[in-house]
Amino acid sequence: MKKPRRKRAVVAVDRRATGSVAHAKPKEGANLNAPRARRSRATADGYTQMRDIQRAFATAIMRPLTKGYNMQPKWTDGRSTKKAVAKFIKPNDRLSSFERIEIYNKQYWFRLLDSLYEDFPGLRALLGDERFHQLSIAYIDKHPSTSFTLRDLGQHMEKFLAKNPKWTKPHQKFARDLVKLEWAHILAFDGAELPPLEIDELLDGANPATLKLNLQPYLTLLACDYPVDDFLISVRRRAEPRGEASNAISEKRTHARTKKVKVPKPQKSYLAIHRQDQGVWYKRLDPAAYRICRALQKGETLQKAVERANVRGKAAEDFSQTLQRWFAQWASFGWFCKTPKM
């Protein structure tokens, strides 16, 4: 599978504060290391003013754009936006206060929309570009960026779709399975990795009744109602290579149109999404293998995890060999890791 392009880290704007606007200067001679009660009133007022400016700036740039991709003409309280922003940002010799802040408002939204466009190619193929674009606006409005990196922007997408099924009708269940896989792909790509354990280290002299095996943090296990792995692999193979985003104002128009892909028929599938050889892989698991891995991931002992396989009758006779083969393969993938130091 082709390795996806690593995201650029960006400074996300938080509703609480940003440091990108003019500060209210503390009074000269103020001791900033003194206890709060001993600070001068002027210093305290200065910090309050700076906080209010930062919050107003964040509110301005994080508000959704109009249908014409411009800044909204009305402020949150119904006032003119031009009058509201003039109170915390100055004009210059070329642009008004409104025009200056509008640049930030557009850049914020276009960059975040582009990030979701890249992160969820499967969902985009399911819905089509226009519907996906409108969904993305609604999602960002509900879940704005609160991290220093846009890698985390889509972490609430599955929860958002669950609460807002209108966006994915009539394929709500498929869409949620698909989004789980796409987010797992992101986690597998650059999630944390701990030193792996070899199979000999795992089982040599260990007591299965007390032994607990840790799985890599980047590994995600999914039980899906649809073969979303086949669907997403097909979508990614069809995608044409595209370079860095161009001018942000025209960014939406630079994307090639996404062709909608037919939804497959329901089929229960168990997946392990993991990283190996600097690539992301989707591995189908036997239902029993999935139950064992999920039990280990939850912190159960090896003995309890194997019991979760629930193999009965004639199949149990040959299960020990199957189990050895599974564990040897999982160890070769580097799934098992040493306990993280606290």
What does this structure look like?
The structure is a single chain. With 342 residues, the chain is mainly alpha-helical. The chain has one domain. The chain has helices at 41-62, 81-85, 97-119, 121-127, 129-142, 157-163, 172-190, 199-203, 228-238, 251-254, 287-297, 302-307, 319-332; strands at residues 214-215, 220-224, 269-276, 279-284, 336-337. 28% of the residues are buried.
Sheet with most strands: strand arrangement = 2-3-4
Shape: elongated
Number of helices: 13
Indicate the structural class: mainly alpha
Our Rg estimate from Cα atoms comes to: 26 Å
Strand content: 5-15%
Please give the alpha-carbon distance between the first and last residues. 35 Å
- In helices, the fraction of residues equals 40-55%
User: What number of domains?
Assistant: 1
Average pLDDT reading: 83
Unreliable stretches, pLDDT < 50, 5 or more residues?
Answer: 1-30, 242-254
Number of strands: 5
Largest sheet: 3 strands, antiparallel
Order of helices and strands: HHHHHHHHEEHHEEHHHE
